[in-house]
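Archive record
______________

***
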Amino acid sequence: MASSLSPVEFRVPPVDAVALETRVADLSTRSIKKAAKVQGLKLAIQMMDLTTLEGMDSPGKVRQLCQKARQPLPSRSDIPACAAVCVYPDLVGLAVEALRGSSVQVASVATGFPSGRTDRVTKLREVQLAVAAGASEIDMVIDRGAFLAGRYGAVYDEICAVKEACGAAHLKVILETGELKTYDNIRRACRIALLAGGDFVKTSTGKVSPASTLPVVLLLLEAVRDHFLETGRMVGVKAAGGIRTGKDALRYLVLVAETCGDRWLSPQWFRFGASSLLNDVLMQLEKERTGRYQRPTDFSAD
């Protein structure tokens, strides 16, 4: 099927890598302490998609993860819930039941995650089944083979088709930036996702290295900011893969605030894909409260 957009629509200006990385280095020196640090760490929890995407995922593991997303630290009522739990499609119904009555959303990966190497009919059916089971968010992977072969229209058309299959569910478009290799490729893939109607652009599946990096997330933030200025439509950014510490999370929040402004400092517009990150953030919050670090074993395994 031919794309409804002309190739010129997918053109993007080249990325000034030196300027991008210099900007990140400058913003990474910002120091956040005391009350602002506590506020930032709590906001990071509210932005987390607590994730388990392993072949050995079991109903018990998913239920435990859902309970942790609802109440990350049972001994403290001031700790907010996470934004979402992200699971494979066959576990969506279980997660929906475990999270019933909470504010935590259920996200499902789809479209042949993580490789995307399956036919479109199967991809769309997977999306439809996840939404029918109760997923309110879909994390799709783009066809990187098509993108790297220059078939940008095919990538665009597939995102459009998945967006339609999502219905009312929000669509996060995973670019898998570690496989796209260059900043120019990442900027072009991001533009395609924005033009196709993605509600979020997401860095990575977490299965490829490098995953999320500060320069790449800055590039995505600049893209969604410029898209908003051009069209008036806000789009979110999800940083996923390799973000393990509270200090890392705060650096990302500085990027968001300085690039897109306070409107994007919300779970509605910025997310972390997280597994090990939550425990470190909880450890940092307990350190701020008590003046000493807790043992890692004081927090439940994700």
